[in-house]
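Posted in: Protein Modeling Q&A

I'm a second-year student putting together a small comparison for a lab meeting, and my supervisor asked me to include a predicted structure for PaaI family thioesterase. I've never done this before, so apologies if this is the wrong subforum. The sequence is pasted below exactly as I got it from our records. If anyone can share the structure token output, I'd also love a short note on what stands out.
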Amino acid sequence: MTQREDREAPSGAGLHYRALESLYASAQINRLFDSRLDITGEGQARITFTIEPSFYHAAGAAHGTVYFKMLDDAAFYAANTLVTDRFLLTTGFNLHFTKPVTEGIVTAEGRWISGHRRVFVAESRLVDRKGAEIGRGTGTFMRSRIPLSGLPGYTFERA
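Accepted answer (user: helix_wrangler)
Welcome! Here is the predicted structure, written out as tokens:
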């Protein structure tokens, strides 16, 4: 099934992916960011967001908290594509800042690396609008006791 077909007539994994996108959109924290999550396949997630001056530190570039949030979210959702029954929790995250960013659209690309049962490892990277890497991170995520089906944002509405 192509990505286009998955978006038009989701079933199985596609339903899970759309429900994860809905879950991301429903999180209160995401009201602070002009961002969008796209699950691009098993073990893959992409978040597109816009850097705004309200995110700046004292030297006039995006604060590291923005880097962490987007890197963590992209890696988290990439890992959660492999888990259809439980919400994952971040248990550790290492990040590296490689370049400051002051404006424009930034993309966080997440990719699952390993783990199938209880602990998952995923990595992510941030790229600016020109495609230059501005940060990267690796996280570990653990299965929680929280059922995805019990979270109000985990839904898929047919158009």
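A couple of things worth pointing out for your meeting: The two ends are 19 Å apart (CA to CA). Residues 1-7 have pLDDT under 50 and may be disordered.
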